Write the structure tokens for this entry.
Amino acid sequence: MKEFLRTKGFKMTPQREMIFRSFFELGEHVSVDELYDKVRSLDHSIGYSTVWRNLKLICKVGLAEEVNLGDGITRYDRVTKIPHGHLFCLTCKKLEEFPVDQLVGVLAETAGERDFTPESFKIEIKGICKDCLNKSEEEIESEEDNV
Amino acid sequence: MKEFLRTKGFKMTPQREMIFRSFFELGEHVSVDELYDKVRSLDHSIGYSTVWRNLKLICKVGLAEEVNLGDGITRYDRVTKIPHGHLFCLTCKKLEEFPVDQLVGVLAETAGERDFTPESFKIEIKGICKDCLNKSEEEIESEEDNV
DNA sequence: TTGAAATTGAAAGTCGATTTCATTTAGAAA
DNA sequence: TTTCTAAATGAAATCGACTTTCAATTTCAA
């Protein structure tokens, strides 16, 4: 990783090492605050802006990309070879993924038909996940009991 | 429109009348600032927060919905019967639309398979539009001329 | 006509994202 | 190894879009 960054003109530091490592350990859809909390638990002296800047750097060197779901929080998603869509639960804010390879093919065609050069695709479904749906049904049942 | 709002418990005012009318005249993907500018040109005394609140109201009564493209600006899109995706040009920020009826069908299936109850679908392609691509090609050509 | 509730405009507040700045550090060059 | 310059850091300030507050005004049902 040190070499990888060096070839792009960046230096390695202990903070950067820790931030990069923590980001990849946390997995998918990491927010600045989540990463900051994790890194802070390892090194209390690390600054918020350092975490933020390094998250941006991870994107700049192509290892992650921003995910924006309209809830005011920017999340960072590791770039993998496999394109995927998001299922975003409006109740518990959980994010699930699903494969979209064939859909992306259709979208690329659509773009091509309009002389549009695509750089990225975003496919999102917002709604209620199974768990939250079950919970709200239980609530309704208990309300009925109270009548 | 006055009656429509009344049935939902809202009152009509001259400002509201003007804001609603202007929103629908502006067409698709309207930002608060765009609408504020337009309304201001008609009535200089109208406040920003009034425009903002009425844009929210238009959403609340189901006539528009928020569109979030990750550039920090919330846009408001008139609700039509026809579902559509967005082509967002990263260079000129222009937003084009394309039909997605069959894609949405596929997505609804996908959600169903995961016991996820969908409320809305978002399909976006970010990239470079035809016009901007032509411009950047021209720039490259003129750079070559300079060699 | 009247009064409660909704609406308005200006200003202040919120909050995540981003920048500033003085200091420290990495690592290439001597 | 030492030196030096650009990069990186941490704290704090700033930005900017969005949202709320509050006193005054207006709507419209009774």
Helices of chain A lie at 2-7, 14-26, 32-42, 48-60, 101-113, 130-146. Residues 130-146 of chain A form the longest helix (17 residues). The beta strands of chain A are 30-31, 64-68, 74-78, 84-89, 95-99, 117-128.
